[in-house]
TrEMBL record:
The lineage of its organism: Bacteria, Pseudomonadati, Pseudomonadota, Alphaproteobacteria, Sphingomonadales. The keyword Signal applies. Residues 104-165 form the Flagella basal body P-ring formation protein FlgA SAF domain. Keywords: Cell projection, Cilium, Flagellum, Signal. It comes from the Bacteria. Pfam families: ChapFlgA. This is Flagella basal body P-ring formation protein FlgA. It comes from Novosphingobium piscinae. InterPro entries: SAF_FlgA. Residues 1-24 form the signal peptide.
Length: 170
């Protein structure tokens, strides 16, 4: 009788161990997606130019083995595409909060001269630049400094003729 009990215990232990991983399927944390979108746009959720609302917490998205891929979706830059680059995985479209009438009222036009203000903890620098995209107040566009050979950067439109890049301190 003892040997039958030992055999049944040996059979049940592997079954119990194999059932645990299947029940605890790993999922991507929606809060991590929210944080990635906020970092990409440079604007917190709920603010103009940031995510309009948090990612739905009911979503059960497979965990990515690779870093998330994040980029603009569409010409108006009012939606962010977040996707898991793993084969056969998922993608999300995150709408951004826009000001009322922003799409019809551009504050900066492509090719227009702008002031590029770069600021961080304890400093602020302004220099002339050129808008490589157009957009409304609060939207993010590409700009290039007037310095010869400068690389394009992303900046948020503050008002007509002024864009800003905010650097975070350590």
């Amino acid at each position: 009788m003892k040997s039958l009990s030992a055999v049944s215990t040996l059979l049940l232990v592997p079954l119990a161990l194999s059932a645990t991983p299947a029940e605890a399927a790993p999922f991507t944390d929606p809060a991590a997606i929210d944080a990635a979108v906020a970092q990409f746009t440079g604007v917190p959720q709920g603010a103009t130019g940031g995510a309009a609302q948090p990612v739905d917490r009911r979503l059960r998205l497979a965990t990515c083995r690779n870093p998330l891929s994040i980029g603009w979706y569409g010409q108006r830059r009012d939606t962010v595409l977040v996707q898991c680059p793993d084969v056969g995985s998922w993608r999300l479209f995150v709408p951004l909060l826009q000001t009322v009438g922003a799409a019809s009222t551009p504050a900066v036009l492509r090719g227009e001269s702008v002031t590029v203000a770069v600021s961080g903890p304890g400093f602020s620098i302004s220099q002339p630049g050129e808008a490589l995209d157009g957009g409304a107040v609060g939207t993010w566009i590409r700009v290039r400094s007037a310095v010869a050979g400068s690389q394009p950067m992303r900046a948020r439109i503050v008002r007509p003729g002024l864009v800003e890049v905010q650097l975070e301190g350590d």
